[in-house]
Design goal:
Number of helices: 16
Distance between the termini: 30 Å
Strand content: 15-25%
Largest sheet: 8 strands, mixed
Structural class: alpha/beta
Shape: globular
CATH class of the largest domain: Alpha Beta
CATH architecture of the largest domain: Alpha-Beta Complex
CATH superfamily of the largest domain: Spore Coat Polysaccharide Biosynthesis Protein SpsA, Chain A
Length: about 450
Amino acid sequence: MALPAHETTALNIVSDKLGPSYDTEPFRGLARILPSLSEVDFKREISDEPLQVITTYAQNSDALIIGAPPFIEENQLSLGAIADALFQQCRRPIAVVKSKRRAPTAYTGVEGERSGIGAISILVDKWFADNTFHANEFDNIKMLIEKKKEQNVTISLALPALNEEETVGKVIKTIKTALLEKYPLLDEIVLIDSNSTDRTREIAQEIGIPVYIHQQILPQYEARSGKGEALWKSLLVTRGDILIWIDSDIVNIHPRFVYGVLGPLLMNERIQFVKGFYQRPLKTGRRVQSTGGGRVTELTARPLINLFYPELSGIIQPLSGEYGGRRKALEQLTFYSGYGVETGMLIDVFEKFGIRAIAQVDLLERIHHNQPLQALSKMSFLIMQTVLRKLENRFGRAILEEVNKTMKIIQYQNGAYYLDVQELPEYERPPMITVKEYLDKFYPEFGEEIVTVRKEESV
């Protein structure tokens, strides 16, 4: 893996009788990940003459590594017909890798499930090592500003908020002072409010940043509730080439929540999207309880991701509220209006740009107020809908049409239980690049033409 790109060729030879769509079970996992590794040039050849194909490739190689079946007899000297022939014909160094145990005659039942099971780990482990960072790596703000100038980009910070009067003022002042006034790392900070009924908006206005109510942005497309709706519409009202979001309820706010997420984007132009992760002590009154990942993360989001999107299993906190990316990528994503937005966005980035376009950053510790269990139950309900919708798109099969989107919340009052029935559908918003008002603002010279191009890119 330390070799430069495409200096290793992985060759898979399939019998002509089986055809190009055939995947042997042991190789299926590798066939899924090898195209994602820039260091490996994956080739599949259809032929009933494997020796001839290998010899042809070997002529342009410095060394050859081949697989061979296990020894059948204790004193067997042959490495197999193909390996023996290669040693006679090939003038390149050859290494032969043999299995410790015999391959099963048929891959069914448990053997079928286990075959190739470790292949995804190769990709995830490599991604984890290459694309996981620490906020302290990026605490040299002057260096980040230089990288910003080199890329010639502008940066926006959007703060989604709903009734956060206790924390929003400190969040804005801390970031504004450190990263807008003292150091011009950010070009703008805006508050995207979800129609708060407390003083959230007034506090932000008094500090001097633009304030928007997301229900009043693009009202012609219906005013929906939900955090995802605020994030989607923030693409329209911000102007930065890079857009960062952080939550407004962070009790221990620090500039690292912003520069930590920005760091990988400014240091590596290949990175399109960055997620933050952290230890999450929960604040209950005056008490702070230590904990790792969130309850919904560990009980819902990560199990679903491991099941259906194992390439993303190295993401430590897929539901964290501190993340961001390049506008050119974000504008191509589908946004879910509710709590499914983080999961949907992560899957969308992976499917459109690949795992190597995603990075994650350790932001140390984030203290926030605990949510009641019922709220977490609703969050899980919406996240599961989001994953099912993504699976529909992936496999071309209708699933959610037959799924109940009504959730019965169990309530207890005055010594009796009762059911509170709530409709909890998770709605989609289309990629912002397909919205006319967005095109008029950011791509007035292209108009409808760019919509067609971006739709083709997303296919």
